[in-house]
Amino acid sequence: MPHSSEEDDQQWETRLKQVEETLLNLRRRYSQIQRDRAKKEELEAKLQRLQSEIESLEFELESRLVSWKDLAEPFWLAVRFGGLGIIIGWFLRAWTDSN
């Protein structure tokens, strides 16, 4: 039994609509992929800027934590008491050598 022309036309219309819907879905997915790629590149660039900023801040904080003002007092205390210890040592050695 051959198919009628109307049935063939209707099948073609149905298949054509399916193909059009599939193509439309593919275009939507492709557009989403393009947007996602652009977003990924944008986020990666932002991440690199943030990492660079973090490194800069870490360096700045470390340089502020260790400053000459922080080290000056312990340095001069060590020089003062170390020097005083040497002088006392010389004095005691000279005193013991004379006895």
Helices, strands, pairings?
Layout: H1 5-65, H2 68-98
Can you tell me about this structure?
By secondary structure, this protein is an all-alpha fold. It folds into 2 domains: 1-66; 67-99. The protein contains 2 helices and no strands. The protein has helices spanning 5-65, 68-98.
Strand content: under 5%
Could you give the distance between the termini?
Answer: 138 Å
Q: SSE string, helix = H, strand = E?
A: HH
The helical percent reads: over 70%
| Count of spatially separate domains | 2
The biggest beta sheet is recorded as:
none
- What is the CA-based Rg, rounded? 42 Å
Contiguous runs where pLDDT drops below 50 for at least 5 residues:
none
What's the tally of helices?
2
Number of strands: 0
**What's the pLDDT, averaged over the residues?**
87
* Content-based structural category: mainly alpha
Short description:
By secondary structure, this protein is mostly helical. The protein folds into two domains: 1-66; 67-99. The protein has helices at residues 5-65, 68-98.
Could you name the key traits of this structure?
99 residues, mainly alpha, 2 helices, rod-shaped
